[in-house]
Amino acid sequence: MLVLLPPSEGKTSPAGGAPVDLDLLTAPVLRPAREQVLDALAEVSALDDAPARLGVGATLADEVARNTTLRSAPAGPARAVYTGVLYAAAGLGDLDGAALERARESLRVVSALWGVVGPEDRIPAYRLSMGTDLPGVGPLAGFWRPRLEPVLAPVDLVVDLRSTAYAAAWVPPASAQLTVRVEREVEGRRTVVSHWAKHARGALTGHLLMRGDLPRTPAEVLAAALELVGTGPIGRTAPGLMTSELRTAELARGPRGTHVLTLVVG
Questions:
Q1: How far apart are alpha carbons 142 and 171 in whole angstroms?
Q2: Is 75 in contact with 6 (CB distance < 8 Å)?
Q3: pTM assigned to the model
């Protein structure tokens, strides 16, 4: 099983430590491509209108400016640098023992800057989204697509938790792809949700890693998800962290013969 995550928009800069070593990242064959994107990002980020070119607001100018020094900036494990809702709910920063080993083997983050990284890959915090068109590189999803194919395939089961922009960077074989949809049920009515979806997907990720043997089929992923029904708030809970309860989970066929797991929260 391969679990694919998007990076979090919010990132925590490591307080110290050695800078990124491109030769030690997952899939070192991607080093030339990573060098190309790093150079293009540094060049764009040094411009006066860099935030606008990277599609972010002026309030993030300091984060954009840090893109110019990524090769020398302190690096930390990706699972600690990415700190958004999904990552908090999954509790990836606290994994250890067998659960951490399962994460090393089966979890990958699809990244606009690095292409793909593993949870223990040491990276600096950066500001770049997959929807960006970098001068000399082009639209990043199209840039990474042919480069990720040989490093991610073949696989028998992909639990695909990526957002639309990141899903465009590599499309798994339809028969192997399991996407996760999240709906919220209130007074018997279901609606598709976005922020709650990140939390529920994170909770599922953490559960898959911590429960024991990894699922090998979509039906086994469904069975694992159903284990959370009736257990109270799902995912890691902490002060200020949103919570939800899983009411049920359903498995159906999606487009092109893919599988769709629907998590119904309330």
A1: 11
A2: no
A3: 0.95
